[in-house]
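Possible regression after last week's pipeline update?

I re-ran a chain I had predicted before the update to compare outputs. Posting the input and the new output here so someone can diff against the archived version. Not blocking, just want to make sure nothing changed silently.
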Amino acid sequence: QLQLVESGGGLVQPGGSLRLSCVVSGFFVDYYAIGWFRQAPGKEREGVCVRSSSGSENYVDSVKGRFTISRDNAKNTVYLQMDSLKPEDTAVYYCAAAKVNYGSRWYSFIGGDYDYWGQGTPVTVSS
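New output (post-update):
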């Protein structure tokens, strides 16, 4: 059974850091493109970053230089390191997986392109 489980969310002050984890079961993370998405209250879901099967990293402009996506194949886990957090980063964060050819550089910030989703973990940035 394919499953993604996020954790690591919480309350943090502006300028602080959090690391989110996405533990994957039922498939190997390096055979999929894994993306992080977020949905703020009253807003549409948006893509944040994607790690392709090849290992390439792709970020939306609003998080470049602040967020880092990484993958631990031994733990079948994808991480999202979030630094210099801002109140506008407040949202529920989701990881998602898209089946691709192994080693592909494919990525997408469109949620409909992904096949599997986690349940989400909330992040609140506030003083």
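Follow-up from reviewer: compared with the archived run. The chain has a mean pLDDT of 96. Marking as no regression found.
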